[in-house]
């Protein structure tokens, strides 16, 4: 499997996700944002961080960079695209995903381990998990409060386009187990064709037993399936 | 134009200091030159009051690659790996503008570390605020915490721990000390010493603006009611540019093109150019028209004294200029040759085709004034706590009160605002005795702990100075690491006051004794004087940042109790010392008595036997006993795992409060399997180490036989409410 990790000025989870991919034998390339050509890849990752310092609005400037044109084309052709944290924000800003990521409801940066529940595994990204499986992942963001209009929300809910929702250790999904105010506890969404996933939690941070757990690894394994 | 008295005072210089300047120049200075002298001769840059005392500290041993005097200290951790680290204060700016003050404190210390060729791998901090009832505290706490997080999170370096304390002594002078730790190849370390003449002097990074002019001078003066007016002297941070600068510098360092490199920190372009030239015994000539400026019509004075952030000065191999420029172009950063090295030993500044300053460099650096300030030996407080009827206090009430106090409360309200795991090498986050961070791609890790004990230092500076070194050493041992070296940040009042100077001198004497005995050298640091407002100084607050090494990731220990039925032993003897304890402060609001004594021999022996037990795989968990005594430390272990403990009564003590809340030093709590008890006892007895069994791990309930019984869940609740409540008010 070939993967490409896009690197913007200010990206800071690019190395982390590359380490996780390479651990699973992905042939990975790091792609600088000024490039005009994207190598042929089975997976494109838009990593976390603070692209362009989060200035103007998180993800807004990165969405206008050279390489994003290629990412958009690839996405439209059906390539698998994974946007994590700032990557999710960028995918929304460039229009590959719909909705908005607002400032956290608590108005503070949140970085901690949280739990998510797999809502749907019939897709390329979560097929190695069981439905309703509970994972412990890490979040670290200022703007992770997903919001969208009713029509889009219904479309997401009705078409299995919300693969993960925030919950507690026992799997309860409610206001109390919602870390950032996301509508319906949404932690990640797909586009209509389910080839593009944006998620706030960081699977790459849970890919090594020495430092954490390995709850994030099956996501990358699913992609190889 | 002649410099007048008012101008001299405005620059924070004394009249006799200006007379010395005239003597060194052989003429009157112009205003620009006066500004340059004031920037170099202030306390912050020249260490004029502290230098003769700092010299006493041990700074060398077989693992030290670079001690104090460079941007940061460097130690050898084997396999060609070096750790580069330093702690620095940003107290004054953070009080004036908490967010930017704290943020730029983090930015500055990161640059100190990556200037030397290291990739930063961890950030730590020590922050001290005034009393929670002071009207400024909430705002300062919020601003400082989001400033620290805002900068570190954005650059992408994990903030893995630190300490937060509250005391009315900091009401008008908060402390914000930031520490950065980086990893480098020990054969690829970069220094600030210039070499060779006619080499290009290159300015890289952000443009120069009018922010932070005279910041270092501000940090060398005390505050008064007009401090608010100093806001324009606080710099504004841009973590995005820092990240670019970090990556561009590390990329350039992979080529062999840098002769020397220095970040523009305090006193900006002035101190960076002078330090490089002075260390290389060279001269430097700059064309100020070439300095990239953010604003129009900036004067040479403003350019030389600006403390705009995220800038570096590099002396380059002239053959590599093109290649180097390409790297900075890639990162969209300014890269401008603004001058060259010379053999004149002088700093020569040109502007609009005129020489606007010409100063012999030794006058600015080596010949800066040094003072042996008058100091009074501090009066040591005596221990006399007899007037307190300790028996009246119910032990469980004291336990809950201390656990829910600001200083002992769980700090997750703070640490949840810091990205602690970016870079994916954080093995132990904050909340343990020390943070543990893996060396990328290797089976080894370093431990980091930051500690201070202002209460101890204020009642007995020498003993307090010893104590913080020992506590730091203990924290590093408690995670199973071998303590290697420290950095220190010395926060004090005005050195012009003999009593404050006395505290400083004695703290150093104490630290020196402990560092020497434990072979624990000081490799970098920073002195922050003038932490006073309206002539009232803060408690002497030296802060220690220590580094330890874990050469085997399987030997890492934390404080979480592991298994029901396991025993907890306390290693080290309890005498019942309550002077300056958390118990006295939280229960009686009493800041009384002497701090606990330090027995360096016991300290070393106890620590080494803990490491020995860990190496023999006999330890399930470990926690040092510090502020709050045995009972608080036991509660912390219990809350870490949410298992309970059945605590035993001591045989010799009639007063339980004395036993359980005493802060006698050199003690550790160690969890062991019952089957290993005999073996452990044998080892400890053989080395003459005092120990006693103090508790047994059980489910859910934290209890002391026939005295009290509390659910661990209840302890946790009490330990986790203060910050939320405090920040919900107003």
Q: How would you summarize the topology of this molecule?
A:
The complex is a heterodimer of chains A (225) and B (730).
Chain A: E1 2-7, H1 14-23, E2 27-32, E3 43-46, H2 66-77, E4 80-84, H3 86-93, E5 100-102, E6 110-118, E7 134-141, E8 145-147, H4 150-158, E9 164-167, E10 186-190, E11 196-199, H5 217-224
Parallel strand pairs in A: 1-2, 1-3, 3-4, 4-11
Antiparallel strand pairs in A: 5-8, 6-7, 6-9, 9-10, 10-11
Chain B: H1 5-10, H2 15-25, H3 31-41, H4 43-46, H5 51-54, E1 64-66, E2 73-76, E3 81-89, H6 91-96, H7 98-114, E4 119-129, H8 137-155, E5 159-166, E6 175-185, E7 200-205, H9 215-218, H10 239-254, E8 258-263, H11 268-280, E9 283-287, H12 300-305, E10 311-316, H13 321-330, E11 334-342, E12 346-351, E13 354-360, H14 361-364, H15 395-403, H16 412-415, E14 426-428, E15 435-438, E16 445-452, H17 454-459, H18 461-478, E17 482-491, H19 498-518, E18 522-528, E19 532-533, E20 536-537, E21 541-550, E22 567-571, H20 582-588, H21 600-615, E23 621-624, H22 629-641, E24 644-647, H23 656-661, E25 668-672, H24 677-686, E26 691-698, E27 701-704, E28 708-711, H25 712-719, H26 722-728
Parallel strand pairs in B: 4-5, 9-12, 17-18, 24-27
Antiparallel strand pairs in B: 1-2, 2-3, 3-6, 4-6, 7-10, 7-11, 8-10, 9-11, 12-13, 14-15, 15-16, 16-21, 17-21, 19-20, 22-25, 22-26, 23-25, 24-26, 27-28
Helix pairs in contact in B: 7-8, 7-10, 8-10, 10-13, 18-19, 18-21
């Amino acid at each position: 499997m070939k993967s490409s990790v896009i690197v913007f000025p200010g990206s800071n989870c690019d190395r982390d996700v590359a380490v996780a991919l390479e651990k699973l034998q992905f042939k990975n390339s790091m792609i600088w944002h000024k490039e005009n050509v994207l190598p042929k890849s089975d997976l494109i990752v838009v990593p976390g961080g603070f692209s362009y310092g989060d200035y103007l609005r998180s993800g807004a400037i990165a969405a206008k960079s050279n390489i994003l044109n290629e990412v958009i084309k690839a996405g439209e052709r059906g390539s698998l695209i994974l946007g994590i944290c700032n990557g999710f924000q960028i995918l929304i800003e460039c229009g590959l995903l719909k909705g908005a990521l607002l400032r956290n409801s608590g108005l503070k940066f949140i970085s901690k381990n949280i739990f998510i529940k797999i809502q749907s595994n019939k897709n390329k990204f979560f097929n190695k998990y069981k439905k309703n499986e509970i994972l412990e992942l890490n979040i670290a963001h200022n703007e992770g409060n997903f919001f969208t209009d009713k029509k889009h929300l219904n479309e997401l809910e009705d078409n299995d386009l919300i693969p993960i929702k925030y919950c507690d250790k026992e799997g309860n999904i409610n206001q109390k187990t919602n870390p950032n105010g996301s509508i319906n506890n949404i932690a990640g969404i797909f586009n209509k064709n389910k080839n593009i996933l944006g998620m706030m939690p960081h699977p790459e941070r849970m890919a090594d037993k020495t430092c954490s757990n390995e709850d994030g690894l099956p996501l990358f394994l699913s992609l190889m399936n | 134009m002649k410099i007048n008295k008012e101008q001299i005072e405005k620059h924070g210089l004394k009249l006799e200091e200006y007379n010395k300047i005239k003597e060194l120049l052989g003429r009157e200075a112009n205003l620009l030159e006066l500004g340059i002298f004031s920037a170099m001769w202030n306390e912050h840059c020249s260490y004029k009051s502290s230098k003769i005392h700092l010299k006493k500290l041990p700074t060398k041993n077989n693992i030290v690659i670079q001690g104090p005097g460079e941007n940061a200290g460097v130690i050898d951790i084997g396999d060609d790996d070096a750790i580069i680290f330093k702690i620095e204060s940003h107290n004054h700016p953070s009080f004036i503008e908490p967010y930017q003050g704290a943020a730029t404190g983090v930015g500055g210390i990161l640059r100190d570390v990556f200037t030397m060729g290291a990739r930063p791998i961890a950030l730590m901090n020590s922050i001290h605020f005034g009393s929670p009832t002071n009207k400024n505290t909430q705002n300062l706490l919020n601003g400082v915490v989001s400033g620290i997080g805002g900068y570190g999170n954005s650059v992408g370096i994990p903030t893995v721990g630190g300490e937060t304390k509250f005391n009315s002594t900091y009401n008008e002078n908060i402390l914000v000390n930031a520490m950065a730790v980086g990893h480098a190849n020990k054969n690829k370390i970069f220094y600030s010493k210039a070499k060779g003449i006619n080499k290009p002097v290159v300015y890289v990074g952000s443009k120069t603006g009018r922010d932070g002019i005279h910041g270092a001078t501000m940090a060398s003066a005390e505050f008064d009611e007009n401090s608010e007016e100093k806001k324009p002297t606080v710099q504004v941070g841009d973590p995005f540019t820092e990240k670019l600068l970090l990556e561009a510098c590390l990329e350039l360092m992979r080529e062999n093109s840098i002769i020397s490199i220095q970040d523009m920190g305090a006193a900006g372009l002035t101190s960076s150019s002078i330090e490089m030239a002075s260390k290389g015994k060279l001269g430097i000539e700059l064309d100020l028209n070439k300095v990239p400026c953010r604003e129009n019509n900036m004067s040479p004075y403003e350019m030389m004294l600006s403390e705009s952030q995220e800038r570096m000065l590099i002396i380059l191999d002239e053959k590599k200029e093109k290649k180097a420029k390409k790297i900075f172009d890639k990162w969209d950063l300014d890269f401008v040759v603004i001058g060259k090295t010379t053999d004149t030993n002088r700093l020569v500044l040109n502007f609009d085709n005129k020489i606007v300053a010409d100063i012999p460099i030794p006058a600015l650096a080596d010949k800066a004034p040094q003072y042996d300030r008058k100091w009074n030996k501090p009066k040591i407080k005596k221990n006399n706590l007899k007037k307190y009827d300790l028996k009246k206090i119910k032990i469980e009430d004291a336990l809950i009160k201390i656990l829910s106090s600001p200083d002992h409360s769980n700090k997750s309200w703070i640490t949840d605002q810091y990205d602690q795991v970016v870079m994916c090498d954080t093995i132990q986050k904050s909340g343990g005795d020390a943070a543990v961070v893996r060396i990328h791609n290797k089976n080894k890790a370093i431990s980091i702990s930051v500690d201070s004990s202002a209460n101890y230092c204020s009642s007995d500076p020498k003993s307090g100075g010893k104590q913080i070194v020992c506590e730091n050493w203990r924290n590093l041992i408690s995670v199973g690491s071998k303590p290697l070296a420290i950095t220190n940040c010395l926060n004090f009042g005005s050195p012009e006051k003999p009593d404050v100077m006395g505290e400083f001198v004695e703290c150093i004497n104490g630290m020196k004794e402990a560092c020497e005995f434990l072979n624990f050298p000081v490799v970098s640091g920073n002195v922050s004087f003038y932490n006073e407002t309206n002539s009232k100084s803060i408690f002497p607050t030296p802060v220690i940042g220590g580094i330890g090494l874990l050469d085997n990731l399987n030997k890492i220990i934390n404080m979480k109790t592991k298994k029901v039925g396991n025993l907890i032993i306390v290693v080290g003897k309890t005498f019942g010392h309550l002077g300056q304890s958390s118990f006295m402060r939280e229960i009686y609001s009493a800041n009384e008595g002497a701090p606990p004594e330090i027995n360096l021999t016991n300290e070393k022996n106890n620590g080494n036997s803990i490491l020995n037990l860990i190496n023999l795989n006999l330890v399930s968990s470990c926690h040092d006993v510090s502020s709050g005594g045995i009972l608080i430390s036991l509660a912390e272990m219990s809350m870490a795992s949410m298992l309970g403990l059945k605590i035993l009564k001591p045989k010799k003590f009639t007063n339980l409060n004395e036993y359980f809340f005493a802060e006698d030093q050199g003690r550790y709590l160690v969890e062991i399997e019952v089957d290993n008890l005999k073996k452990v006892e044998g080892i400890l007895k053989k080395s003459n180490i005092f120990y006693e069994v103090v508790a047994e791990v059980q489910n859910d309930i934290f209890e002391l036989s026939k005295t009290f019984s509390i659910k661990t869940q209840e302890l946790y609740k009490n330990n986790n409410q203060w910050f939320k409540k405090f920040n919900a008010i107003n």
